[in-house]
Design goal:
globular; single chain; 4 strands; about 45% helix; alpha+beta; 4-stranded mixed sheet
Length: about 120
């Protein structure tokens, strides 16, 4: 069973998680980042979790960023639509787009002098 860590304070993220919850086959667990306590270093730090989507596999491996998104969607019947994002020709472009979007989302929401993470 995989566990997907998500930012419940991000409206876009919450919307996608709501869709994933409805469509998943029952083998994906959802963990809201802001509700997590870092159990003695078992999780990446909160900033890392908020900057990029993180998925912990049932085998204990971490999948981060675009591959985490693709793996999360693989728990639905629509997963095949996302698999091409990992193809060698497409992945570098898709990963850059994801990274840029994720950085901008994080900066708008959390990277300010008065914000608390």
């Amino acid at each position: 069973m995989d566990t997907l860590f998500y930012d419940g304070q991000c409206p876009l993220c919450a919307k996608e998680i709501g869709t994933l919850r409805k469509l998943q086959k029952g083998d994906l667990v959802f963990a809201e980042i802001h509700a997590q306590e870092n159990r003695k270093g078992m999780l990446p730090d909160r900033e890392a979790l908020l900057r990029r989507l993180h998925l912990l596999t049932g085998d204990g491996d971490w999948v981060v960023g675009l591959p985490a998104n693709v793996r999360a969607w693989s728990h639905t019947r629509f997963g095949f639509f996302f698999k091409p994002l990992l193809w060698p020709v497409i992945y570098p472009i898709a990963a850059r787009i994801y990274k840029n979007w994720a950085d901008k989302r994080y900066d708008r929401k959390y990277a300010c002098g008065t914000c608390e993470v």
